[in-house]
Amino acid sequence: MRVAIVGAGPSGLFALEALVARVPDDLSVDIFDALPVPSGLVRYGVAPDHFSVRSFRDNIDRMLDAPCARFFGNVVVGRDVSVDELRDDYDAVILSYGASKGRNLGVPGEELVGTIAAPELVAWYCGHPDAERGRIEDLVRTTKTAVVIGVGNVAVDVARVLVKSEGELGQTDMPDHVLALLAEHAVTDVHIVGRRGPVQAAFTTKELRELGELEGVDVVIRPSDLVLSEFDEAEMKANRLVARNVDIMNEWAERELTGAPRRIHLHFWQRPVSIRGTERVESIRIERWARDAAGELQPTGEFEDIATELIVKSVGYFGEPLDGVPFDAKAGIIPSEGGRVTTPDRAGGGLYVAGWIKRGPSGIIGTNKKDSIASVETLIADGAAGSLNNPAKPGSVEEQLRNTGHAIVDLAGWRNIDAAERALGASKGRDRQTIHERDVLIAAAQSAPN
Ligand code: NAP
């Protein structure tokens, strides 16, 4: 069985692992990634100061050592090779390319300079080669007060990274230019704004708690934002983790501010109404919502303006379509049944999805394991039923890429990059420093290992 996996993030590599465990003989798996490096959001999404989660990339990276696996980095499916070409070449194709775009708020003023999607900012501080450095760095350098919309873990990550001290970030693998810019500490205040209450916030306790432990940072919460209705109380009773979050926030609300040089402000029940400014963002108008007697959220007509130079939309990631593959544009996912995608022109099996592009941007890294196993089990059942692709041109994709002189980064190339990043880090007393330019990554891949 020859399988192509598109996307070498956690879900793609869990799919590889599931195939290896279930197809003992005659399996070969080629893993394609648009980037010259594997790991996906573990490298370009997980916050660089979350060392233990980030170290998970070593675990998934080891999956590439499977003798049946080959890595094809720096190959963009949809540009360098089409899904149809993959289907002509492989018995099965698994799309696991994730969700990398940010969602919009849909409020007036969103187009102003100074509004940015959280995935763009996260990609920048993680050293993603496609990050728009000039634009993002101009914004960060000239921002004193940032507003982050959304109260999920990404919002908490972004707020923390923006105010964290140089010492606290110094041991991360962030590129030097990111560390240097963040160390300037232009940003003194970050407002995190939730449209519902503290009970409904999407962040987890560990991530929340960290905000209260940052050096030189006060957490500011208005006690009135923590007042709960009977409906919230009932929701909280049913969820111990939520109750813990609320306890932490109540403690912060009662705590004396220390006069620290930087602040994180947590707001609840506030919806963005409009973003104001002439060319650059100057403020955001938010409106307070409250639960009515039936527990429904209703606008109160109470508005507040927060002066800000940077608005980070942290309201969820969103997947992108791929030519020749059905796409649910509302949900940002590829619709499937048990992981099998049915295209109108090619009935039956042969095309599968796994991870965020299958189910949307939710869960922790490990959630993808179960998800990828389910898709692989569907694939294997289709194989047993004889309904995979029946490829007409095995080997054609590799041949086409090599004939056009495409710079493929293979597993040995990635190991060279890995070694180069560790050596760069070691020269500065760190475990690793991320190389952020694509041409430097490719040059490192092609260089002989030391
Ligand atoms: P998320 O957890 O889905 O949170 C999105 C937030 O945006 C929610 O608070 C949501 O509020 C809010 N929101 C959505 N649309 C909005 C709108 N139009 N206006 C205002 N607020 C809006 O998404 P995420 O933070 O991007 O995280 C994605 C996934 O990665 C999650 O599963 C997360 O746990 C995971 N992750 C985990 C970690 C970690 O474990 N350390 C770190 C980063 C990410 P509503 O609830 O009201 O919709």
What's the SSE blueprint?
Elements: E1 2-6, H1 10-22, E2 28-33, H2 41-44, H3 51-54, H4 56-62, E3 69-73, H5 83-89, E4 92-95, E5 101-102, E6 115-117, H6 118-125, H7 133-141, E7 145-149, H8 153-163, H9 166-169, H10 176-183, E8 189-193, H11 205-211, E9 217-221, H12 230-237, H13 240-254, E10 262-267, E11 270-276, E12 283-291, E13 297-307, E14 310-313, E15 317-318, E16 351-353, H14 356-359, H15 367-384, H16 396-403, H17 411-426, H18 438-446
Parallel strand pairs: 1-2, 1-4, 2-3, 4-16, 6-14, 7-8, 7-14, 8-10, 9-10
Antiparallel strand pairs: 5-15, 11-12, 12-13
Helix pairs in contact: 1-15, 8-11, 17-18
The structure holds NADP nicotinamide-adenine-dinucleotide phosphate (NAP).
Give structural notes.
- The chain folds into two domains: 2-100 and 319-409, Rossmann fold; 102-313, FAD/NAD(P)-binding domain, CATH 3.50.50.60.
- It is 36% helix and 18% strand.
- It has helices at residues 10-22, 41-44, 51-54, 56-62, 83-89, 118-125, 133-141, 153-163, 166-169, 176-183, 205-211, 230-237, 240-254, 356-359, 367-384, 396-403, 411-426, 438-446; strands spanning 2-6, 28-33, 69-73, 92-95, 101-102, 115-117, 145-149, 189-193, 217-221, 262-267, 270-276, 283-291, 297-307, 310-313, 317-318, 351-353.
- The two termini are 36 Å apart.
- The model has no long low-confidence stretch (mean pLDDT 95).
- α1 crosses α15, α8 (153-163) packs parallel to α11 and α17 (411-426) crosses α18.
- The chain has 450 residues and is α/β, with parallel strands linked by helices.
- The strands form four sheets. It has a six-stranded parallel beta sheet with strand order 6-14-7-8-10-9. A five-stranded parallel beta sheet has the order 3-2-1-4-16, with helices on both faces. Strands 11-12-13 form a three-stranded antiparallel beta sheet, with no helix packed on it.
- It is globular and about 65 Å long.
- It has 18 helices and 16 strands.
- The structure holds NADP nicotinamide-adenine-dinucleotide phosphate (NAP).
- NADP nicotinamide-adenine-dinucleotide phosphate is lined by residues 50, 105, 149-155, 157, 194-196, 200, 202, 204, 207, 272, 314-317, 361-364.
